[in-house]
Amino acid sequence: DIVLSLGDICKSYNRGKPNAVEVLRGVDLSVQAGELVALVAPSGAGKSTLLHIAGLLDTADTGTVTLAGEDIAKQSERRRTALRRRDVGFIYQFHHLLPEFSAAENIVLPQLANGVPDQGAGTRAAHLLDLVGLSHRSAHRPAELSGGEQQRVAFCRALANDPKILLADEPTGNLDPSTSDQVFDALMTLVRDGRLAGVIATHNLELAARMDRIVRLEEGRLIEVTAP
Ligand code: ADP
Ligand code: ADP
Fold first, then answer.
1. Which of 23, 128, 179, 191 is the most exposed place for a label (fewest CB within 10 A)?
2. Is the pLDDT reported for residue 228 higher than 70?
3. Which segments of 89-222 does DSSP mark as H helices, in order?
4. Atom of ligand 2 nearest to the CA of 149
């Protein structure tokens, strides 16, 4: 059951200008439900570009993106936005939680925006917070949480609407190593619980080694580093 498939993706910035950069030069990647792929790449190699194309936030110059069985190039802009909201969960290095709302409310709000009734949204928020060991922090605002706790809440928020794929850009990048380990465990629990597909960009090779597969972005192409 392939959730995301990228075929021969090419992407340049400032094409035809003196400052043109060819970032992706024929990237292929398939991710199955329940599979967690580590994306490792030196800074500037095009990790964010790749994740944004995979998550329908940006478009490739050429190549195909298939998400949850739909060929993205054939969809309208409106349909792409709907697919992104329904099927993709994003996690960034910095959590971007809403400071005036509690942890639980930060997880409830995206569900309400998606038409989930109050009660169901609250129940799901409580379930997700429980999975990452933060039930006792549900009424706290972000400023009252540690960095690691904030990031765990951000994971729950990304999964609030039960997406099919999780895309994460250095999700533990600004945490100290011991917090980072703990927070990564929470991420794994959420992914396994939801049988999610995931592409997790990380510089941390120990964390990468705990995923199902490692791919490396090098000179615009994806190279398989290990097979299970
Ligand atoms: P990474 O996430 O691996 O650090 P990015 O995907 O952010 O890499 O960027 C890859 C390359 O593309 C970098 O050289 C960066 O400077 C360039 N780049 C990224 N976004 C733009 C943009 N909007 N316009 C021009 N160049 C860009
Ligand atoms: P830890 O105990 O995990 O080291 P801290 O409480 O020291 O966590 O906070 C970690 C980081 O999160 C700090 O850089 C802090 O400035 C930042 N931070 C704290 N509250 C917020 C907030 N509401 N929004 C954004 N960043 C915050």
1. 179
2. no
3. 103-113, 118-131, 147-158, 177-193, 205-209
4. 3
